Amino acid sequence: MIYLNAFLVAGVICGIGQFLVDRFKLTPGHITSWFVVAGVVLDSFNLYDKLIQFSGAGALVPITSFGHSLLHGALARSEDLGLLGIGMGMFDITASGITAAIIFSFLVALIFKPKG
Amino acid sequence: MNKDYSDIIKRNALKPKYLKNFIIAFVTGGLIGIFGQGLADIYVNLLDLSRDAANSLMSVTLILISALLTGFGVWDYFGAFAGAGAFVPITGFANAMTSAALEGKSEGITLGIGSGMFKLAGSVIAFGCASAYIVGILRYIFFGA
Fold first, then answer.
1. Is residue B145 predicted with pLDDT exceeding 70?
2. What's the rounded Cα separation, in Å, for the pair A103 and A7?
3. A116: pLDDT confidence band, cut at 50, 70 and 90?
4. Which residue ranges make up each domain of chain B?
5. What average pLDDT score do residues A28-47 get?
6. What is the pLDDT of residue B99?
Protein backbone atom coordinates (compact mmCIF):
# COMPACT_ATOMS: atom_id res chain seq x y z
CA MET A 1 0.00 0.00 0.00
CA ILE A 2 2.79 2.39 0.86
CA TYR A 3 4.21 1.77 -2.61
CA LEU A 4 1.00 2.96 -4.22
CA ASN A 5 0.98 6.02 -1.95
CA ALA A 6 4.63 6.68 -2.76
CA PHE A 7 3.84 6.55 -6.46
CA LEU A 8 0.85 8.86 -6.15
CA VAL A 9 2.44 11.48 -3.88
CA ALA A 10 5.76 11.69 -5.72
CA GLY A 11 3.85 11.69 -9.00
CA VAL A 12 1.51 14.51 -8.00
CA ILE A 13 4.37 16.69 -6.72
CA CYS A 14 6.30 16.19 -9.96
CA GLY A 15 3.12 16.74 -11.98
CA ILE A 16 2.50 20.06 -10.25
CA GLY A 17 6.08 21.08 -11.04
CA GLN A 18 5.61 20.15 -14.69
CA PHE A 19 2.37 22.13 -14.90
CA LEU A 20 4.05 25.21 -13.43
CA VAL A 21 6.87 24.88 -15.98
CA ASP A 22 4.42 24.64 -18.86
CA ARG A 23 1.95 27.25 -17.68
CA PHE A 24 4.22 29.99 -16.37
CA LYS A 25 7.37 29.29 -18.41
CA LEU A 26 9.47 28.78 -15.29
CA THR A 27 12.86 27.09 -15.29
CA PRO A 28 13.67 23.99 -13.24
CA GLY A 29 15.75 26.27 -11.00
CA HIS A 30 12.67 28.33 -10.11
CA ILE A 31 10.55 25.27 -9.45
CA THR A 32 13.06 23.46 -7.24
CA SER A 33 13.89 26.62 -5.26
CA TRP A 34 10.25 27.43 -4.55
CA PHE A 35 9.36 23.81 -3.88
CA VAL A 36 11.96 23.80 -1.11
CA VAL A 37 10.30 26.88 0.38
CA ALA A 38 6.94 25.12 0.03
CA GLY A 39 8.38 22.16 1.94
CA VAL A 40 9.49 24.47 4.75
CA VAL A 41 6.07 26.12 4.94
CA LEU A 42 4.23 22.79 4.91
CA ASP A 43 6.50 21.45 7.63
CA SER A 44 5.87 24.44 9.86
CA PHE A 45 2.33 23.14 10.36
CA ASN A 46 3.56 19.53 10.66
CA LEU A 47 1.69 18.71 7.47
CA TYR A 48 4.74 17.31 5.74
CA ASP A 49 5.33 14.77 8.50
CA LYS A 50 1.85 13.41 7.89
CA LEU A 51 2.61 13.19 4.20
CA ILE A 52 5.78 11.21 4.95
CA GLN A 53 3.89 8.86 7.26
CA PHE A 54 1.34 8.36 4.52
CA SER A 55 3.65 7.84 1.57
CA GLY A 56 7.20 7.19 2.81
CA ALA A 57 9.66 7.86 0.03
CA GLY A 58 6.88 9.40 -2.03
CA ALA A 59 7.26 12.51 0.13
CA LEU A 60 10.97 12.05 0.90
CA VAL A 61 12.24 11.83 -2.68
CA PRO A 62 10.87 15.14 -4.04
CA ILE A 63 12.99 18.22 -3.30
CA THR A 64 10.23 19.57 -1.01
CA SER A 65 11.53 17.17 1.64
CA PHE A 66 14.84 19.06 1.59
CA GLY A 67 13.07 22.09 3.07
CA HIS A 68 11.23 19.90 5.52
CA SER A 69 14.49 18.33 6.73
CA LEU A 70 16.20 21.71 7.10
CA LEU A 71 13.46 23.02 9.38
CA HIS A 72 13.24 19.74 11.28
CA GLY A 73 16.94 19.69 12.08
CA ALA A 74 16.85 23.34 13.13
CA LEU A 75 13.87 22.87 15.46
CA ALA A 76 15.27 19.68 16.97
CA ARG A 77 18.46 21.47 17.99
CA SER A 78 16.61 24.52 19.27
CA GLU A 79 14.91 22.31 21.87
CA ASP A 80 18.19 22.23 23.78
CA LEU A 81 19.99 25.33 22.59
CA GLY A 82 17.26 27.85 21.94
CA LEU A 83 17.66 30.27 19.04
CA LEU A 84 21.30 29.32 18.64
CA GLY A 85 20.19 25.78 17.82
CA ILE A 86 18.30 26.92 14.73
CA GLY A 87 21.56 27.78 13.02
CA MET A 88 23.46 24.83 14.44
CA GLY A 89 20.86 22.23 13.55
CA MET A 90 19.91 23.61 10.14
CA PHE A 91 21.84 21.04 8.13
CA ASP A 92 21.75 18.16 10.64
CA ILE A 93 19.41 15.92 8.66
CA THR A 94 20.30 16.99 5.14
CA ALA A 95 24.05 16.86 5.78
CA SER A 96 24.47 13.36 4.35
CA GLY A 97 22.60 14.27 1.18
CA ILE A 98 24.49 17.51 0.62
CA THR A 99 27.82 15.83 1.37
CA ALA A 100 27.00 13.04 -1.05
CA ALA A 101 25.96 15.49 -3.76
CA ILE A 102 29.18 17.50 -3.36
CA ILE A 103 31.47 14.45 -3.23
CA PHE A 104 29.86 12.59 -6.11
CA SER A 105 29.58 15.60 -8.39
CA PHE A 106 33.18 16.53 -7.66
CA LEU A 107 34.41 13.01 -8.46
CA VAL A 108 32.24 12.69 -11.55
CA ALA A 109 33.49 16.06 -12.82
CA LEU A 110 37.10 14.96 -12.27
CA ILE A 111 36.68 11.59 -13.99
CA PHE A 112 34.21 12.17 -16.81
CA LYS A 113 34.49 14.44 -19.82
CA PRO A 114 31.70 16.95 -20.42
CA LYS A 115 29.40 15.88 -23.26
CA GLY A 116 28.40 18.19 -26.07
CA MET B 1 -0.20 46.31 -37.14
CA ASN B 2 1.19 45.46 -33.76
CA LYS B 3 -2.04 43.84 -32.74
CA ASP B 4 -2.22 41.76 -35.90
CA TYR B 5 1.28 40.60 -35.35
CA SER B 6 0.66 39.48 -31.80
CA ASP B 7 -2.51 37.76 -32.96
CA ILE B 8 -0.53 35.81 -35.51
CA ILE B 9 2.05 34.88 -32.91
CA LYS B 10 -0.61 33.78 -30.49
CA ARG B 11 -2.36 31.65 -33.11
CA ASN B 12 0.80 29.94 -34.25
CA ALA B 13 2.58 29.53 -30.93
CA LEU B 14 3.08 25.94 -29.87
CA LYS B 15 0.57 25.10 -27.20
CA PRO B 16 2.31 23.22 -24.41
CA LYS B 17 0.79 19.78 -24.07
CA TYR B 18 -0.27 20.21 -20.46
CA LEU B 19 -1.91 16.83 -19.96
CA LYS B 20 0.69 14.75 -21.75
CA ASN B 21 3.58 16.46 -19.94
CA PHE B 22 1.75 16.16 -16.63
CA ILE B 23 1.23 12.43 -17.07
CA ILE B 24 4.85 11.81 -18.09
CA ALA B 25 6.12 13.78 -15.08
CA PHE B 26 3.58 12.06 -12.83
CA VAL B 27 4.57 8.56 -13.90
CA THR B 28 8.34 9.07 -13.95
CA GLY B 29 8.33 10.96 -10.64
CA GLY B 30 6.05 8.35 -9.13
CA LEU B 31 8.32 5.54 -10.28
CA ILE B 32 11.30 7.26 -8.65
CA GLY B 33 9.20 7.46 -5.49
CA ILE B 34 8.50 3.71 -5.65
CA PHE B 35 12.16 3.00 -6.35
CA GLY B 36 13.18 5.10 -3.33
CA GLN B 37 10.68 3.34 -1.10
CA GLY B 38 11.98 -0.03 -2.31
CA LEU B 39 15.57 0.99 -1.60
CA ALA B 40 14.69 2.23 1.89
CA ASP B 41 12.80 -0.99 2.66
CA ILE B 42 15.76 -3.07 1.46
CA TYR B 43 18.13 -1.07 3.67
CA VAL B 44 15.88 -1.52 6.69
CA ASN B 45 15.52 -5.27 6.20
CA LEU B 46 18.93 -6.22 4.84
CA LEU B 47 21.28 -3.80 6.57
CA ASP B 48 19.25 -3.59 9.77
CA LEU B 49 19.24 0.20 9.65
CA SER B 50 16.77 2.43 11.43
CA ARG B 51 14.09 4.00 9.25
CA ASP B 52 15.79 7.42 9.41
CA ALA B 53 19.20 6.05 8.47
CA ALA B 54 17.68 3.97 5.67
CA ASN B 55 15.88 7.02 4.26
CA SER B 56 19.09 9.00 4.41
CA LEU B 57 21.04 6.25 2.63
CA MET B 58 18.23 6.03 0.09
CA SER B 59 18.69 9.72 -0.78
CA VAL B 60 22.44 9.21 -1.04
CA THR B 61 21.90 6.25 -3.39
CA LEU B 62 19.59 8.26 -5.66
CA ILE B 63 22.14 11.09 -5.68
CA LEU B 64 24.94 8.68 -6.64
CA ILE B 65 22.89 7.11 -9.44
CA SER B 66 21.90 10.50 -10.81
CA ALA B 67 25.49 11.84 -10.63
CA LEU B 68 26.83 8.79 -12.47
CA LEU B 69 24.13 8.91 -15.15
CA THR B 70 24.91 12.61 -15.61
CA GLY B 71 28.58 11.74 -16.03
CA PHE B 72 27.77 9.13 -18.65
CA GLY B 73 25.58 11.67 -20.45
CA VAL B 74 22.49 9.49 -20.10
CA TRP B 75 20.64 11.80 -17.71
CA ASP B 76 20.17 14.49 -20.37
CA TYR B 77 17.96 12.17 -22.39
CA PHE B 78 15.97 11.11 -19.37
CA GLY B 79 15.64 14.71 -18.20
CA ALA B 80 14.44 15.88 -21.61
CA PHE B 81 11.85 13.11 -21.64
CA ALA B 82 10.63 13.22 -18.05
CA GLY B 83 10.72 16.98 -17.38
CA ALA B 84 9.68 17.68 -13.80
CA GLY B 85 9.60 13.93 -13.16
CA ALA B 86 13.38 14.06 -13.34
CA PHE B 87 14.22 17.42 -11.77
CA VAL B 88 11.76 17.65 -8.88
CA PRO B 89 13.06 14.52 -7.08
CA ILE B 90 16.39 14.73 -5.25
CA THR B 91 17.91 13.29 -8.44
CA GLY B 92 17.44 16.69 -10.06
CA PHE B 93 19.49 18.35 -7.33
CA ALA B 94 22.35 15.92 -7.93
CA ASN B 95 22.07 16.37 -11.66
CA ALA B 96 22.16 20.18 -11.33
CA MET B 97 25.35 19.99 -9.26
CA THR B 98 27.08 17.40 -11.40
CA SER B 99 26.26 19.00 -14.73
CA ALA B 100 27.38 22.43 -13.47
CA ALA B 101 30.63 20.90 -12.19
CA LEU B 102 31.22 19.09 -15.50
CA GLU B 103 30.49 22.25 -17.46
CA GLY B 104 33.03 24.18 -15.41
CA LYS B 105 35.74 21.58 -15.82
CA SER B 106 37.41 23.53 -18.64
CA GLU B 107 37.85 26.52 -16.30
CA GLY B 108 39.92 24.49 -13.87
CA ILE B 109 39.36 22.53 -10.71
CA THR B 110 39.08 25.45 -8.29
CA LEU B 111 36.84 27.96 -10.03
CA GLY B 112 35.33 25.63 -12.59
CA ILE B 113 34.43 22.54 -10.61
CA GLY B 114 34.69 23.72 -7.02
CA SER B 115 32.70 26.90 -7.21
CA GLY B 116 30.85 26.09 -10.43
CA MET B 117 29.01 23.10 -8.99
CA PHE B 118 26.74 25.40 -6.99
CA LYS B 119 25.80 27.55 -9.94
CA LEU B 120 22.42 25.86 -10.37
CA ALA B 121 21.91 24.08 -7.06
CA GLY B 122 23.00 27.04 -4.95
CA SER B 123 19.61 28.71 -5.03
CA VAL B 124 17.96 25.58 -3.65
CA ILE B 125 20.28 25.61 -0.64
CA ALA B 126 19.99 29.39 -0.20
CA PHE B 127 16.19 29.48 -0.45
CA GLY B 128 15.82 26.43 1.76
CA CYS B 129 18.19 27.73 4.41
CA ALA B 130 16.74 31.26 4.44
CA SER B 131 13.12 30.17 4.60
CA ALA B 132 13.81 27.48 7.20
CA TYR B 133 15.66 30.06 9.31
CA ILE B 134 12.79 32.53 9.19
CA VAL B 135 10.10 29.92 9.82
CA GLY B 136 12.24 28.27 12.49
CA ILE B 137 12.65 31.51 14.43
CA LEU B 138 8.97 32.38 14.12
CA ARG B 139 7.98 28.95 15.32
CA TYR B 140 10.43 29.04 18.18
CA ILE B 141 9.14 32.42 19.33
CA PHE B 142 5.43 31.65 19.04
CA PHE B 143 5.20 27.93 19.79
CA GLY B 144 8.47 27.00 21.47
CA ALA B 145 10.58 24.33 19.78
1. no
2. 29
3. low
4. 2-143
5. 91
6. 93
How many whole angstroms separate alpha carbon A38 and alpha carbon B40? 24
pLDDT tens for each residue of B93-139: 999 999 999 999 999 899 999 999 999 999 999 999 999 999 999 99
**Residue from A63, A105, A111 to probe the interface with B (highest B Cβ count within 10 Å):** A105
Query: CB atoms < 10 A from the CB of A63, how many?
Result: 26
Establish, for the pair of chains A and B, how many residue pairs have beta carbons separated by less than 8 Å. 270
pTM for this model (two decimals): 0.90
Tell if the CB–CB gap between B88 and A14 is shorter than 8 Å. Answer: yes
Say yes or no: B19 contacts chain A, CB-CB below 8 A. no
Out of B39, B106, B124, closest to residue A33 by CB: B124
How long is chain A?
116
User: Residue A98 in contact with residue B88, Cβ under 8 Å?
Assistant: no
Taking CB atoms and an 8 Å cutoff, what residues of chain A touch B84?
14-18, 21, 28, 31
